[in-house]
Design a protein that fits this description.
mainly beta; Beta-galactosidase, Chain A, domain 5; 3 domains
Length: 435
């Protein structure tokens, strides 16, 4: 029975309990952000045909949010709001309600990640939107990122004291991918479920050993309508690694009503809009007729600032910014040939201005016009490749050198430190020439 399960809280940091109260839904939080306020004995409550129905076992934390990932080769695992303890840092909550739209955001931290989980719903609706946004604040990519969210449906306790529900996972649109998981009260008929905005990235199902685990990788099954006092869960798996400084987001719609058909309708009505902005950045996805070219990343949308050369099209213009100075040539950092993408006057087709310290045409040469391997300072005629000073070795005891090659460029008579400076410079140029 639900009321005999052990519970203890080991949260690293706690926030004040808070609530969102609408005409049809009430969502009450505990100090870790779980949908359960032990002070009031309420978690998620729905008013159906004038009757208030508590959807969970009132007041106890039979809920878990777990996260797992690999960073710098090491596996990490965290949980919060769990009946078996918490090790995720709770940074706090923020009420983001506006008008008839009620919203609360909870922020959590690990050593590498910031996780923001928010719930929002219209005060006259029986469905709420759960949004997770995860940001990588570390100096290494985060791989194999998974997030589990699970609750214990107990909607019939108010009617008959029955803790069991009839549990199943469904494919509502018949595309072969499960997109809805539901718990039906066998005595009341009240239906409660999760609907996936991105079914391909979510696993939906139930598990029974949840009172003793917060494992993000716990096995999820489809009971196919069987009765059980099980946890109902979704697990999101990131489709790719989360790079340094990057963020990813996903959404799930939670719906309830007095019967399954109406609960599904509530899910689909809300999902029609909410799922078109799956990363909650305010821009509709291209699949919904919008212009958001990546509805997984909150920082990618029209009008965003594009970060050059990172391979990501942040502003949805059709490609990554690879020509910052607009001279028509991609930067070397983006696989092009522009050696200075901050100077519009520097690119491979530009005319070279000799000896000005700028390599305008990106060929690596600004001071050896005749290409004889010697810069102007050591070339008596930089327009004639046959004329240059070659002083390979000192040929006197005091280190003085004489020029070789009948070019008329004299370096003989140099001595002392000056000769050593000339020798060093010429040897350097010879290495450049041989290279």
């Amino acid at each position: 029975m639900c009321d005999t399960r052990p519970m203890f809280i080991l949260a690293v940091s706690l926030a004040s309990a808070s609530s969102l109260v609408g005409d049809l839904l009430e969502l009450h939080y505990g100090s870790t952000g779980a949908w359960s306020d032990s002070a009031t004995g309420v978690g998620l409550k729905a008013t159906l045909d004038g009757t208030a129905v508590e959807l969970f076992y009132a007041g106890d934390v039979y809920q878990v949010s777990s996260i797992g990932y690999v960073s710098d080769g090491e596996s990490q695992s965290f949980a919060v709001g769990s009946s078996v303890g918490n090790n995720l840092i709770v940074q706090g909550s923020e009420d983001r309600s506006s008008g008839t739209a009620l919203a609360m955001a909870w922020t959590y931290r690990t050593g590498e990640l910031e996780i923001v989980r928010s719930e929002s719903f219209d005060e006259a609706e029986l469905a709420l939107v759960v949004t997770y946004s995860v940001s990588n604040l570390s100096f290494a990519p985060v791989e194999d990122l998974r997030i589990l969210f699970a609750v214990d449906p107990d909607q019939d306790t108010a009617f008959s004291g029955n803790y069991n529900t009839l549990n199943s996972v469904e494919d509502l649109d018949g595309d072969g991918v499960e997109d809805w998981v539901q718990a039906l009260g066998p005595d009341s008929g009240v239906a409660f479920g999760f609907g996936a905005c991105t079914p391909d990235a979510l696993a939906l199902g139930f598990y029974s050993a949840w009172q003793g685990t917060s494992d993000v990788d716990v096995g999820l099954v489809d009971p196919a309508g069987a009765s059980g006092d099980d946890a109902m869960a979704f697990r999101w798996t990131a489709p790719e690694a989360l790079g340094v400084g990057e963020a990813m987001a996903f959404r799930v719609v939670v719906a309830v009503d007095g019967n399954v058909a109406d609960a599904v309708d509530n899910f689909q009505d809300v999902a029609a809009e909410a799922c078109c902005d799956g990363d909650a950045d305010g821009a509709m996805a291209e699949a919904c007729g919008g212009a958001d070219c990546d509805d997984l990343r909150p920082g990618v949308l029209p009008g965003a600032t594009d970060v050059p050369y990172d391979g990501v099209d942040q502003d949805c213009t059709g490609g990554d910014l690879a020509d910052v100075d607009g001279d028509g040539e991609y930067a070397t950092a983006a696989g092009g040939r522009d050696c200075d993408d901050a100077d519009v006057g520097v690119w491979t087709g530009q005319a070279e201005v000799w000896y000005d310290g700028v390599d305008q045409n990106c060929d690596g040469n600004d001071d050896d016009q005749d290409l004889d391997g010697y810069v102007l300072a050591f070339d008596c005629d930089d327009m004639d490749p046959a004329l240059w000073v070659d002083c390979p070795t000192p040929d006197t005891d005091d280190g003085s050198v004489t020029s070789s090659g009948d070019c008329g460029c004299a370096a003989s008579g140099a001595s002392g430190p000056t000769a050593l400076v000339v020798l060093f410079a010429v040897l350097t140029l010879r290495r450049r020439r041989s290279g």
